[in-house]
Write a structure and sequence with these properties.
The chain has 54 residues and is mostly helical. It contains two helices and no strands.
């Protein structure tokens, strides 16, 4: 089961990019799914940006 990554604590960013990509595309609980809204490349760009913040 996919869970929404917790970027506040950095644990979510320890997962491989494709795991985070699938979590963002699928959504969970309060986090909406972004499948069809953002392209895979856009999501991976966001992941790359989030990694620069830690």
């Amino acid at each position: 089961m996919l869970t929404a990554p917790n970027f506040n604590q950095g644990e979510g960013l320890m997962q491989p990019d494709l795991v985070i990509l699938n979590s963002i595309k699928s959504g969970k609980n309060a986090m909406p799914a972004y499948r069809g809204i953002l392209s895979d490349r856009d999501i991976l760009d966001v992941v790359a940006y989030l990694r620069t913040l830690n």
